[in-house]
UniProtKB/TrEMBL annotation, chains A, B:
Domain YDG: 11-159
Organism from which the protein derives: Kingdonia uniflora
Transmembrane segments: none
UniProt name for this protein: YDG domain-containing protein
Signal peptide: none
Protein localization: Chromosome; Nucleus
Length: 175, 175
DNA sequence: TAGACGTAGA
DNA sequence: TCTACGTCTA
């Protein structure tokens, strides 16, 4: 693991092109596109604040895209039941959520990786594929009441112009 | 992921040599050496029973080796606290534990992968390395009371003769 | 649907 | 120590 412990990169990652595909989160980690193995939001400390560097819209959450994929609505993190807190709780503006807010304030680019559930060839098994969709910027965020009754953040990101067109756009309905 | 959903292999895996090293569990999965991402015991269904194919002695458990590494004592699985069962429970002779017992009865080979905690070069960070140690056979198993008061299985495996010597032997004290 | 010797980073 | 859009097989 040559890349262990590297600092998160803000913006483009050398050698990674829009449309590049990956099979496992560990691959995103190895090339520095998105370091955490499970966390959907990666960020880096800059001065006194934390700034989001990349997100993974992996599916299964209440995210969705519109307008040919240029706009992505992304749900915040946290509030999930755990061994300690057995019930959903309101998300807080901390960690990844805070880093996305700060990214909005500072107008810094956020790499977006989208997950796609594919049908495996032989068996009818579903497999995940990850695809790099390029740089976005956080435009706005607000709070909504999630399907479990707790308050969750909703971020709106817009894809930066001038990047290579994406292929046939994945349409996420309640991705 | 070309290897998704493959059936576990009993015995040698083509192309994998004793001493081969890996950085992530996902690599063991990809080459078919050990399929589960987290589970320490892999097994395959054979007729009416399940037979262990490989184990990962990753460290952190109460495993240890003796006699220049030819004998490995390996702890069973299960009984850990979860969200449902908040306290340790006695391990049961099922799943992986049962597959190891059946492997003993049928004298089938078990691949052993050992984990080694290494000191990362630059930072003082600990990283995990996995090393294929070859084929073993389950000789015996019994129950002991674990450090948390619950009953756990202890398996004794012996390395099959005639395999390439291992390098300087890792000595696990309470691995 | 749940359980499992995962991983990194805060 | 804990959280986190993991990922498999049974």
């Amino acid at each position: 693991c040559a890349n262990a412990g590297i600092e998160a990169i803000l913006g483009d990652v050398s050698g990674v092109k829009v449309g590049d595909k990956f099979n496992f989160r560990v691959e995103l980690h190895l090339i520095g596109l998105h370091r955490p193995f499970r966390n959907g939001i990666d960020f880096v400390r800059r001065g006194n604040t934390i700034i989001a560097t990349s997100i993974v819209a992996s599916g299964g959450y209440d995210d969705y895209t519109k307008e040919n994929g240029d706009v992505l609505y992304y749900s915040g993190q946290g509030g999930n039941p755990s061994a300690k807190t057995l019930f959903p709780e309101d998300q807080k503006l901390e960690r990844g959520n805070l880093s996305l807010k700060n990214s909005m304030d500072e107008k810094t680019p956020v790499r977006v990786i989208r997950g796609l559930k594919d049908m495996k060839d032989t068996k009818g098994k579903m497999v995940h594929t990850f695809s790099y969709h390029g740089l976005y910027k956080v435009e706005d965020f607000w709070q909504v009441r999630g399907p479990h009754g707790n308050v969750v953040f909703r971020f709106r990101l817009r894809r930066t112009q001038g990047q290579p067109r994406l292929g046939p756009c994945l349409t996420y309905h309640q991705l």
